[in-house]
């Protein structure tokens, strides 16, 4: 089955489309981000009530979270290896259905095994959803205009935490943690209908600006400095994101002393900063490139510096004693780190030909998921063994903040898709 969004037979000159269609498809693609990150965020909201009711240690709960990322990584690798033999539209529809069905074992869970089973199913579905949603939207835009669509899609994660997670958090406080998983299932079914109606390939499905002299497979592209830098930056931010989604509400509650309801509300605040950062960095990169600067500057320098500064802010949290200042550091540090997809995904889409774009984007998501396999478990271990109630949380920010800063530095110095296209 040939992918609808990777047809090489598409006309070289983009066909005329209704002007609203690119942004309608992009909005539907952003809905995939809303769904995926709403589900990830729920794990943080329900961490304390699940551990209390089922008597779990932080390490065990970290293992449950890690199960999601393990299957996400495997399914992303499967998409990357499948090349052109997948239908983007059909796979995304399947992902939405599996995410909905995967909530059932969690809602009925009486122990860790059913929760792990749920996360395995959901993780396998969430893996392809993010890269294929980007790939679908990119088929409607040329390479120089993909920063803003990337920002809109990635902002779905922020929207889920700003607009939806606080509501779910209040529902969990009022009715119990199982209600949260039911709510995610309902959202998944609603998105499924939206994607069925709007998910269509665009005029850039088979063409994308400057192309390599020969169409490269993702294994060959994996060896370029640009791709390696993208993989490492995404790995670093993915490790941090998995820790934040799993443990941030618990940090606010157990480390800083806020109530469960307040912790759920505070969980949304980094996404407010992230929402602004996404459009700032994505729009700035597009503007710089439209003025003639290469992606090395518009994506690499801009994005790398943003990640570097974000990591340093987070690494400084162990030095902070005032709860309000610690919350502000999380808001700014993690909030601006979510711009990683706004720069890495457009860079990768420019580096690879349309036939291999979906697979290359899946590799980026696999890298992020690979980090998420270990980081919640490691953070859980740090929390269990911390000398003071909040010390394990702050040590986690130190470790993963420094990793993010290093990823940003590498990204700023190594990214140059024009150079790597020319040295096939």
Q: Could you give the order of the helices and strands?
A: HHHHHHHHHHHHHHHHH
Oligomeric state of the chains? single chain
In helices, the fraction of residues equals over 70%
Nearest-integer average pLDDT: 83
Low-confidence stretches: 1-16, 207-215
How far from one another are the termini?
A: 28 Å
CA radius of gyration:
20 Å
Query: Into which percentage range does the β-strand content fall?
Result: under 5%
From the spread of the alpha carbons, the general shape counts as: globular
In short:
Pfam families: MFS_1. With 424 residues, the protein is mainly alpha-helical.
Describe this structure in words.
The structure is a single chain. The chain has 17 helices and no strands. The model is unreliable at 1-16 and 207-215 (pLDDT under 50). It has 424 residues and is mostly helical. It is globular. The chain has helices spanning 21-45, 47-54, 58-82, 88-107, 112-138, 147-175, 178-198, 218-221, 225-255, 260-266, 269-290, 295-315, 323-337, 340-351, 354-385, 391-414, 417-422. It has one domain: Growth Hormone, Chain: A, CATH 1.20.1250.
């Amino acid at each position: 089955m040939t992918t609808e969004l990777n047809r090489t037979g598409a006309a070289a000159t983009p066909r005329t489309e209704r002007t609203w269609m690119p942004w309608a498809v992009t909005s539907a693609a952003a809905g995939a981000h809303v769904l995926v990150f709403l589900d990830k965020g729920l794990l943080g909201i329900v961490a304390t009530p699940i551990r209390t009711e089922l008597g779990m240690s932080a390490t065990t709960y970290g293992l449950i979270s890690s199960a999601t990322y393990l299957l996400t990584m495997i399914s992303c690798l499967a998409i990357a290896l499948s090349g052109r033999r997948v239908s983007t539209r059909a796979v995304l529809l399947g992902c939405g259905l599996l995410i909905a069905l995967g909530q059932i074992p969690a809602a009925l869970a009486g122990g860790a095994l059913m929760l792990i089973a749920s996360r395995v199913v959901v993780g396998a579905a969430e893996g392809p959803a993010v890269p294929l949603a980007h790939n679908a939207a990119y088929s409607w835009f040329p390479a120089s205009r993909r920063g803003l669509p990337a920002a809109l899609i990635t902002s779905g994660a922020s929207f889920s935490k700003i607009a939806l997670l606080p509501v779910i958090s209040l529902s969990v406080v009022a009715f119990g943690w199982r209600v949260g998983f039911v709510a995610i299932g309902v959202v998944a079914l609603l998105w499924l209908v939206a994607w069925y109606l709007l998910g269509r390939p665009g005029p850039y499905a088979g063409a994308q600006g400057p192309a390599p002299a020969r169409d490269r497979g993702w294994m060959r592209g994996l060896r370029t400095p640009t791709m390696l830098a993208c993989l490492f930056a995404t790995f670093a931010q993915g490790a941090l994101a998995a820790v934040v989604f799993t443990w941030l509400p618990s940090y606010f509650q157990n480390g800083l002393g806020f109530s469960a309801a307040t912790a759920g509300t505070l969980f949304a605040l980094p996404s407010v900063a992230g929402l602004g950062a996404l459009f700032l960095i994505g729009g700035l990169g597009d503007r710089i490139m439209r003025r003639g600067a290469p992606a090395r500057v518009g994506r690499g320098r801009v994005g790398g510096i943003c990640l570097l500064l974000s990591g340093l802010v987070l690494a400084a949290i162990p030095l902070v004693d005032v709860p309000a200042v610690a919350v502000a550091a999380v808001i700014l540090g993690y909030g601006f780190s979510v711009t990683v997809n706004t720069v890495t995904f457009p860079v990768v889409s420019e580096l690879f030909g349309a036939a291999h774009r979906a697979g290359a984007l899946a590799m980026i998501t696999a890298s992020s998921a690979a980090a998420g396999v270990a980081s919640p478990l490691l953070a859980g271990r740090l929390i269990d063994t911390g000398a003071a109630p909040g010390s394990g949380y702050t040590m986690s920010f130190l470790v993963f903040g420094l990793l993010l800063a290093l990823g940003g530095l590498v990204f700023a110095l190594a990214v140059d898709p024009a150079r790597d296209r020319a040295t096939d």
